Amino acid sequence: MNLKFNKDGLIPAVVQDYESKKVLMLAYMNKESFDITMEEKRTCFYSRSRQELWRKGETSGNVQKVKKISIDCDSDTILLEVEQEGNACHTGEYSCFHNYLLGEEEIRGNVIRDIFKVVKERKANPVEGSYTTYLFNEGVDKILKKVGEETAEVIIASKNNNDELIYEISDLIYHLIVLMEERGLAYEDILKELGGRRK
Questions:
Q1: What CA–CA distances, in Å, run from 197 to 17, 172, 175?
Q2: Per-residue pLDDT reduced to its tens digit, 99-128
Q3: 109, 19 in Cβ contact below 8 A?
Q4: Are 97 and 26 in contact (CB under 8 A)?
Q5: Which of 114, 121, 133, 138 could form a disulfide with 142 if both were Cys (CB 3.0 to 4.6 A apart)?
Q6: pTM
Q7: What does the pLDDT look like over 22-31, one tens digit per residue?
Q8: How much helix, strand and coil, in percent to the nearest 5, is found in the chain?
Q9: Predicted confidence (pLDDT) at residue 135 exceeds the cutoff of 70
Q10: Contact between residue 99 and residue 74 where contact means Cβ atoms under 8 Å apart
Q11: How, if at all, do strands 44-47 and 52-55 pair?
Q12: Strand runs labelled E in 37-152
């Protein structure tokens, strides 16, 4: 791989969410930080202001696990597709690109992924008063009953062509996520299956 670093020995690195494809940030790498990123499969950059290497999430815990690396046609820009833990931006926003000059923010796959994370956390660490915890405590039969009920409500709302359809579909998706967690299925399992069907 023949990367073209600039006169300062740096190359821009665009960081993108592996699942939603949302651009998270732009940073710079030198050869050493690129090599570390390749070896550790976690992002490491070069800080131009501090003149030193920095591993993303070293202090915040918001690490970026690298899933895919590619370069542009001129070999002078890197694209890192990552699994982002927490937020990418130091302001607390998920993406550094959250100030919109044209258009509005799109709600993308992050919402579903985040619900999966919350549901997984509730199963591992039950919270008193949580509906999700209640479902896990009741077991798979209760969860299946709710999936059945929500499926029927989706059908009824759809047949009646009323405004409740969006709420019923959302309820069904949530209960399906709980069922998946109960049966040990991950978000990535669904993405892989759907991706295979698309091909």
A1: 22, 22, 23
A2: 888 876 665 556 787 899 899 999 999 999
A3: yes
A4: no
A5: 138
A6: 0.62
A7: 899 999 999 9
A8: 40, 20, 40
A9: yes
A10: no
A11: antiparallel
A12: 44-47, 52-55, 64-71, 78-84
The DSSP code sequence of 49-69 is TTTEEEETTTTT---EEEEEE
Distance CA(182)–CA(136), nearest Å, equals: 7
| All domains in the chain, ordered by first residue | 1-106 (3.10.20.810), 110-198 (1.10.287.1080)
- pLDDT score of 199: 66
Helix (H) or strand (E) holding 190: helix 187-198
CA dist., res. 159 & res. 157, Å (int): 6
Distances (CA, A) of 133 to 36, 57, 123: 40, 30, 6
In tens, the pLDDT along 146-196 reads 999 999 999 999 999 878 999 999 999 999 999 999 999 988 888 789 888
